Amino acid sequence: MAEKLATFTTMTQGTADDYQIIAKANIQHGINLPDRILEHLELLKGDHGGFAVDRYTHCLQTATRAMRDGRDEEYIVCALLHDIGDTLAPTNHADFAATMLEPFISDKNYWILKHHGVFQGYYFFGFLGLDKNMREQFKGNPHWEDCAEFCAKYDQNSFDPDYDNEPVETFIPMLKNILAQTKKSIYMAN
Fold it and tell me: What is the rounded CA–CA span in Å between residue 114 and residue 69?
């Protein structure tokens, strides 16, 4: 108990040295982030949700298609992780992925991630009694076409049990590169 109280006191009355120690711990936490994300991606294995491939394979296919189409590393990582929230946030998985990657990606890729669930609905909302054109509410946004393209070229087509996708090891260096470069954070000085 005394140790916990000492930690609390340090946090509330910390010196510059105390916060440097905390900053170093946060750096180490960030170094381990790719491994933690990959562990969570693995949770999608075996979860088919009615599809011909599991969600893990779907993510690998989406990333593979983006890579083979010549997309940059950031886009490919977004494609790999676009559905990572399916297990923890099934009713708002797109928001989950977007929030997780927001500090590391462009505004355009963030917007694509955040809205891909609604845009993907174009292909199946009609079967659920929903408006397949729900994405039209975002018409006029500069990233509308980008999101529609992501779904049409990569997301929608990546449920193919016969597709020869790359293994996750192909994407690990890309993931590490993207997560090593924080672009925006409340903890960064301007």
Answer: 22
Q: Could you tell me which residues come within 8 angstroms of residue 125 by beta carbon, excluding any fewer than 6 positions away?
A: 131, 132, 134
pLDDT, tens digit, 9 for 90 and up, residues 111-140: 999 999 999 999 999 999 999 999 999 999
| Residue 29, both tokens | 């936490």
At 109, give phi and psi (nearest 5°). Answer: -70, -35
Nearest CA-CA partner of 38 in 79, 81, 71? 81
Topology of domain 17-179, per CATH?
Hypothetical protein af1432 (1.10.3210)
The predicted pLDDT at position 5 comes to 44
Percent over 70 (pLDDT), the chain: 84
Calpha distance 130→70 (Å, rounded): 34
